[in-house]
Design goal:
The complex is a heterodimer of chains A (455) and B (83).
Chain A (H helix, E strand, L loop, with lengths): L1 E6 L3 H12 L4 E4 L10 E5 L2 E5 L15 H10 L8 E3 L3 E5 L2 E5 L3 H11 L4 H11 L14 H8 L3 H13 L10 H14 L2 E3 L3 H14 L3 E3 L4 E7 L2 E7 L4 E9 L3 H7 L13 E9 L12 E5 L17 E5 L13 E9 L1 H5 L3 H19 L10 E7 L1 H8 L23 E3 L8 H17 L2
Parallel strand pairs in A: 1-2, 1-12, 2-9, 6-14, 12-18
Antiparallel strand pairs in A: 3-4, 5-8, 6-7, 10-11, 11-12, 13-16, 13-17, 14-15, 15-16
Helix pairs in contact in A: 1-8, 1-13, 2-13, 3-4
Chain B lengths: L2 H15 L14 H5 L3 H15 L14 H12 L3
The chains are: A alpha/beta (455), B mainly alpha (83).
Chain lengths: 455, 83
């Protein structure tokens, strides 16, 4: 009998596992796949390392910071700052027709860009920042108001509002067009105030660190251990049945599989409307030179080709109107990466990808690569002649490797901040609890473990 | 344990929780919250570490006694003197 079984060896599950193992709880993490990471994972393809999910770690804080999510996380997991090897971004851009806002890990740059491009909004933006204030991302309270409505109270120019929402929705929007204000505060702080960073070795470095820590404290990790069902008796989860028929018992269960996915495991499927609908397609281009040699030194470019940013299921294979161009090279590393890389991410319709047969699907991936990159080079130097290898992932890829229905990267449109379910001893953590980004989702696992699983 | 040993024990716990801190500079009677910016989750960790390492139970209403190094040692002395 375990004290706790954790479903999913992603960021939140591993963080929760470390907390429990550290305090001598008997804990087992079950992972359906042969690799850990979930929504933020890694793979090797034709001899190269790739990250999935991660463009950047948000919530960056420089060495020695004692405040903020990263500092809290390090203390909770007993990690030294060095261990995550975070290199800050060089600098990023939000580009809409005729307006370009630069930002980096110092809010002053974004403020001055807004003052220069939207002079009448300068003070309004300051008021918005003040209202975001010290919102507590670990406050597990109830629902918050619409972010669109809250932002409109301060920011008058709709174009500026769209430009601010663009990176935040791309990096954490689980709903179409809007998010709740609590989510907005978390994302705004994590991206614009604290900022972006990345370890040179990518997400695998962080995941390996977490797994090592978890196992060294006696935690048990089972790979290829997909959960078939959670057996319910009265108001509690009684046991877990794995896909291979193994039965496991635990006092408590913590699931990072997603709200809807977890409810299905309990055969409690009355929440259809909560399946998230937003997913992405991404093209990955390996280059024979660093992007800055081709004249591109920005870390991220968030682009949109009209005044209105339409963040919704596009009903098409790829929505070419907007996107994120990420260059993992353009962080301030101690030494340069061995190759260049450009990733272009855009909204995609799960249903359109899911409807394709095998050969059409493969063809559509190739076509999506070409169209995505052609869309991106409207906003960055044309890097196509430097491409030496490519890969593409689609909403179907995301669903296959994460178990998230409809490839919903940011999970269900409404969140469960308190982590509770209809069962007394079943809790959820991760994207559907409401914290997003790498640091956010790690903190989600920690917060839920501390609150319910360490008593 | 003597007061000195208890102090060492607390320092070891703090060094675990905040491995990047230079605890040599820690002031005795300034709140840890102010010196190290510890939050409520960290104080809970100190309590849980004391339970894990020394089986010392600290009731929730006494958490305020863990404010500074000085107050913590004074509070723990009677609880840990037999250890």
């Amino acid at each position: 009998m375990y004290d706790t079984i954790i479903i999913g060896a992603g960021m939140s599950g591993l963080a929760a596992g470390i907390r429990l193992a550290h305090f001598n709880r008997r804990v087992c993490i079950l992972e359906r796949h042969s690799a850990i990471g979930g929504l933020n994972s890694f793979y090797r393809h034709r001899g190269r390392n790739y990250d999935v999910g991660l463009h950047a770690v948000t919530n960056y804080a420089p060495r020695g910071s004692r405040r903020g999510p990263l500092a809290r996380l390090l203390r909770q997991l007993r990690l030294r700052w060095d261990e995550l090897a975070l290199a800050p971004q060089v600098g990023s851009i939000i580009e809409f027709p005729g307006v370009r806002l630069r930002f980096n890990n110092d809010l002053a740059l974004l403020e001055s860009e807004i003052a220069a491009n939207f002079p009448s909004e300068r003070d309004n933006f300051r008021r918005l920042v003040a209202s975001i204030g010290d919102y507590d991302e670990l406050n597990l309270a109830g629902p918050a108001p619409s972010a669109r409505a809250e932002v409109a109270r301060w920011v008058r120019d709709p174009l500026l509002a769209e430009m601010l929402f663009c990176p935040l929705l791309y990096y954490g929007g689980a709903r179409e067009h809007d998010m709740d204000f609590a989510q907005f505060c978390i994302l705004f702080r994590s991206i614009f105030i604290e900022g972006l960073a990345r370890p040179l070795a990518g997400i695998r470095l962080i995941l390996k660190k977490l797994v090592e820590r978890f196992k060294s404290m006696g935690g048990e990790l089972r790979l290829r251990a997909g959960v078939q069902s959670i057996v319910v008796k009265d108001t509690a989860a009684e046991k877990i049945i794995l896909e291979d028929g193994t039965e496991l018992a635990a006092r408590r269960i913590l699931s990072s599989a997603g709200w809807h996915e977890t409810m299905e495991l309990c055969n409690h499927a009355d929440q259809r409307q909560l399946v998230g609908g937003l997913s992405f397609v991404e093209s990955i281009s390996v280059l024979d030179a660093e992007p800055r040699r081709l004249g591109h030194d920005r870390t991220m470019v968030f682009f949109n080709d009209s005044d209105r940013f339409d963040y919704r299921d596009p009903g098409e294979l790829v929505d070419l109107r907007s996107g994120v161009i990420c260059s993992p090279n353009n962080f301030v590393y101690d030494r340069p990466p061995s190759e260049g890389m450009m990733r272009v991410t855009a909204l995609a319709s799960y249903d359109r990808w899911a409807a394709l047969g095998e050969s059409d699907y493969r063809l559509a991936k190739l076509r999506a690569y070409d169209r995505l990159v052609a869309s991106a080079v409207r906003f960055v130097p044309d890097f196509r002649s430097a491409v030496i290898d490519t890969d593409v992932f689609t909403p179907k890829t995301i669903q296959r490797f994460t178990g998230r229905q409809r490839g919903a990267v940011y999970g269900a449109p409404s969140k469960r901040p308190d982590g509770r379910t209809h069962l007394d001893n079943l809790f959820i953590c991760g994207a559907d609890q409401g914290l997003v980004g790498i640091i956010g989702t790690l903190l989600s696992g920690i917060a839920i473990a501390n609150r319910y699983l360490l008593e | 344990m003597t007061a000195t040993q208890i102090r060492e024990a607390i320092l070891a716990i703090l060094a675990d929780i905040a491995p990047d801190e230079d605890l040599g500079q820690l002031k005795e009677d300034v709140p840890l919250r102010d010196q190290l910016e510890l939050d409520s989750m960290d104080f809970l960790d100190i309590v849980m570490e004391l339970r894990k390492r020394y089986r010392v139970q600290i009731p929730e209403e006494d958490y305020t006694a863990l404010s500074s190094m000085k107050s913590t040692v004074e509070y723990l002395e009677p609880l840990m003197k037999e250890l």
